[in-house]
Amino acid sequence: MASALMLFTTGAEIPLTTREALSGIFGSISLACWIFLLVPQLLENYRNSSAEAISLAFIFVWFIGDIANLAGALWAGLVPVVVAIGVYFCIADGVLISQCLYYGIINKRKQGKALLSTQPSSSSADAERPTQENDEEEPLLKRTRTNSVTIPGSADNRRRSSASARRRRSSAIADEHLAQIFEESDENGARLWFKNAMSVIAIGVVGAAGWAIAYESGAWKPTPLASHADEEKMATGAQILGYLSAVAYLGARIPQIIKNARDRSCEGLSLLFFILSLLGNLTYGAGILCHSTESAYVLKNLPWLIGSLGTMVEDVTIFAQFHMYRVRDQSAPEQAVI
Q1: Rounded CA separation 210/154 (Å)
Q2: How many whole angstroms from its chain centre is CA 227?
Q3: Which end of the chain has fewer CB atoms at under 10 Å, N or C?
Q4: Residues 24-51 pLDDT 10s
Q5: In the chain, what is the straight-line distance between the N-terminal and C-terminal CA atoms, in Å?
Q6: How far apart are CA 207 and CA 215, in angstroms?
Q7: What is the dihedral of CA 65, 70, 71, 72, to 10 degrees?
Q8: Could you give the angle at the alpha carbon of 107 between the alpha carbons of 105 and 112, nearest 5°?
């Protein structure tokens, strides 16, 4: 996460240009994305009562990036609202990490109790052993439910015929259930696509409206390009922390990508979480470049540009995993029936 609010600076009373307006709008949309970013994944974990789909390495490295970003903002003396949003990021990361650890501990305890309850006791095993030995010693005719002599092989034929009938019934039930699965998956997929699309549109509207309100109230003002030449150079330590946060953001998604590939599944992950991440990074980078493409200005914001635009490639990779493993999960039941 980069400090999207770096775009909300004050300047002299100058006319609002198209590029400056786009810079403010993109920055505000990016800020809205960051504020709501972790909410979908927190809700997904709560619904599943599990956080096994999330790589803890992913969250911890991301947390390190947010800490470095906050420290860099404090060192560089950025506006208080930037520092405030940096604190919010760290708190939100802490909540997600705490939730993951909580569900991890709770589920391990449940699995341990379930394992103990399924293990048979030694007394019950000893009690069953004499019965089995006695059954083996009894004559074949005495094991029938009646005293009448049965035709050899007739019991086996009845068992085979009844098993065949059960297989036919279970096959018919499986075919019907498979059809329901595909119908429900298509319906759920369309509903999920619509929900995510509406969420993205809502985030965009909220961000744009937030910028309009800030501009009309005077909280946001265009920054003159000429002032960049007079700006003080950012402290070296703050610049280093900015690059550290960029490296952390770039490396954070790698453990998640590896985990998805190892599990061959993205079940339990919120797709909207990664959509908002991609949208937030895209609009943040666009906001900076719309404001100015001068080399001095781009160089000053280079760590945040790398941290934002660089992670988009990894987000696209995770989107590909969502699609690939969803297709595999849908085709697996059909292959199993065949």
Answers
A1: 81
A2: 41
A3: C
A4: 899 899 889 988 999 999 999 999 999 9
A5: 47
A6: 12
A7: 90
A8: 95
